[in-house]
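Run log, item B.
One chain of 257 residues. Sequence copied directly from the ordering sheet:
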Amino acid sequence: MPSVIHDGGHVHFNRAGGGPGLVMVHGTGGDAATNYAHLVPNLADIRTVITPDYAGSGETADPGGDLTLDLLIEQVAATFPEDGPSDLVGFSLGAVVAAGLAARYPELVRRLVLIAGWTHIGDPRLRLGLHTWARLAATDPESYAAYGPLVGFSPAFVSGLGEDGLKAMLAGDPPPGTVRQIELDLRTDIRDLLPAITAPTLVIGCTQDHLVPVEHARALHAALPGSRYAELDSGHVVLHERPAEVTALIRDFVTNE
């Protein structure tokens, strides 16, 4: 797994395919592999797909100190290829990071896709959900594991897994960076950054999102004049619930002028 050095630490990333760059940023509690490994083969035929792990996820260590949006933006920016602007995709917290990067470094971003993102965490219900998620991750791994399917996926998808599929989903402890990443979610407000985004943008919302309700994706779209908008009938983790549909939206948007 290649890496670059940023602020004295290694930022690890995967690379696949060929052609112009497509950088894909994962969400809270995930990493490059868990969020995107199953999507990469259907994008690597048209792009050099780069999937970084930011601080506290995958193979990238948490450097300690304040975990800030600026740090994650800089870590992801360090993984961009040097041969011209790249397309950029972000999911959940990754969408917030991607939007911030596109605002700070417009020269790096050709097209931008923001999936299940938000502008700020002023919604009391959203704050309650995130606080609960963080508390369970810190104190009760078994309840944390159960909470994920309940708020991360649509009811029909979870029921369709069956007992064995659900048991497999519940296995494992929270990734080490999860609590600090959720705490960052709760502090994040990108409303002042959004007017600086110049890249053509597609916002994707999820109609059955119980973690970050679809109204937040709609508000993100409304805050980006000229952006395109699509909704999928899915829970929050649309990358796994509707992988073919979300991949098709990404391919169409980055290849059609």
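Observations after the first pass:
- Residues 3-124+174-255 form a domain with the Rossmann fold fold (CATH 3.40.50.1820).
- The chain has one domain: 3-124+174-255.
Flagged for discussion on Thursday.
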